[in-house]
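question for whoever is on the cluster today: can someone run the full assembly for these? two chains, 661 residues total. i dont have access anymore since they changed the login thing
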Amino acid sequence: MSDIYIICVEDEPQVLDVIIRDLAVFEEIFPIELAHSADEARELIKEIKQEGHKIGLALCDHIMPGDKGIDLMIEMQKDPFTEKTRKVLVTGQAGLEDTIEAVNNAKLNRYIAKPWNPRELVEVVKEELTQYVIQEEKELLRFTSLLDQEKIQEAIRTKGYV
Amino acid sequence: MSERKKPSKEQRPNVIGASARPMYDKSTFVSTIKDEIPNSLLLKSLKKDYKEGEVMLREKEINDKLYIILEGYVAQVKQDEDSGTQIGLHGPGDFIGLLSFQTGEPVFTTAKASTHVSGLCFDHHSFEVFMNEYPQISKILQGLIFSNLADRYRKVVMLHVEVANLSRQLEEERNHLKQTIKELERTRNALISQEKMATLGELTAGLAHEINNPASALLRSVEYLSENLPAMAENASALPDTGLVRFFFETGFKREFADTTVQRQRMKELNASYPELSRSMLRTMAEMEPGVFEKLTSFIGSSKNQPLLQLLIDAYQSGVFLNSIKLSTARIEYLVKSLKSYSRQGGKDPEVSDVRQGIMETLQIIGNRLKDIKVETEMEEACPVNCFVGELNQVWTNIIINACDAMDDKGKLVVSCKPDKESSRVIITIADTGPGVPDKIKQKIFDSSFTTKTAGGDFGLGIGLAITKNVIEKHHGTIEVKDHPQTGALFIITLPLAS
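^ ran it for u. tokens below:
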């Protein structure tokens, strides 16, 4: 069975450390992978694709050396493999223009400002992953323990299969 | 004013006595005398002619002649320090030398024939004789003299009034100018502070990012440490060797971040060997050197030892987080310190400071703009200058941010700073790899309101470089822009080296 990955792209090691720690609860089902730059993220995405897995969620910093977070997200939006991936910007600073571009061209789903509140971060990730699995997965029951139980049960009822 | 100016219609009203009443009508008087001349030996002997430009009376000299003009015009000139001011023009029927002739005082104003002049020239004796011989004409003459004096008096009064009026006008004008200058100053200050606010906005945005990252790491690390530590304290006693906790804690504290691809590979290998372990445990283990990991292996595999394995991993993680707290705090502290020193508003007096420090602080503060820019610095020797640190930092910021804009935030920035002992100056060069500054605007870029950024752009008003030049000049420095030998623009600044 293929796994649904969460990828975190962030150039600051210390920030990456705490993000993973905050999201540890999801690793029971959703393995987390890291990248320090857009380039590393591209490699990572390629690898995950080759191994036959999927990417359910991308958490991305904006200001990084090399390509910016939003550039990466726009790229992901254009690639059929990552088009459906939920995209969340986690940033300390992105100008209005950048944000508008992200919403319009990268179909950005959420924006989280640094420093974040861990409960909010977990909540956002939970909601986004719930959206992802409802849209993309057939077998939903296994997610009820970790994700939004109500929405998943609702989806199971509407879809008419377990 | 030219003394030789030919009398014109406009100048006529200046003719003294022009307003004399009819009974002392000058033209009647002149024609009466002219009629009389052919019949009188006395008048014939008194008649004299003067060429244009000839001086009849000279200022400050003693005079014993009284002239009555019959034809032509005489200019009355008052000598200033280096030039003469014509203060009146006299025509037929007017008197020249009246005051000095009567009072014996030195001549007050020079009289010079403005055209060819013919007139009667009396001395005291001939004047006496004339009065006796022509009582009728003398009567008119006296009337004219009186009217002449009255005219002069009126003129003096009018002049006083005019001076008072002029002074009032001048005062008004002066107040108006004062007001205008004040308004200009206000506008200028408003523009400068607008520009400063734009720079500040740029800096704040950058700082938000620079500070939010370590702040996030700091906040989250503290939270995890407070969760981990009590549990570790409780479980540590179960370990055969409590030194292990310390060992893993210290290893975590010293951890260096590995390449994520290598890390991922290692994690996969570990996952294959220990499929029962959680991913977060595997991730932490993947970070460890083989020698460190070795010490964990004896705890893997038995469910009894599971809490102890978790304890050691937590100890390692705690070290990581504590180090993160240390790094983040240091970074925030450094940023705040730089900011403080960067924005230092010196007192009234300049202070001796190393230019290199200001440049380094500036590079630090606008670091978020430099993420994709390769920054090279060549600054080996100390460069002390007598300066207002905050103002010079504004200069470095303006030039470097301009360079970033020109390079579209991608490229190379080379900053050099070295003392030149020979000329006693510090030479600072800032080179970018942007498109450079076209020759025809090289001169203009330091003018206020010159900008290549389109209206409504996101930064500044285009007076940044004007302020820059201002500040440099205030520091007795020079600034110029040249083409970089390879590519881009090269700003060269020199400042006097402090002894």
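summary bc i know u wont read the tokens: Chain B has a mean pLDDT of 83. The radius of gyration of chain B is 48 Å.
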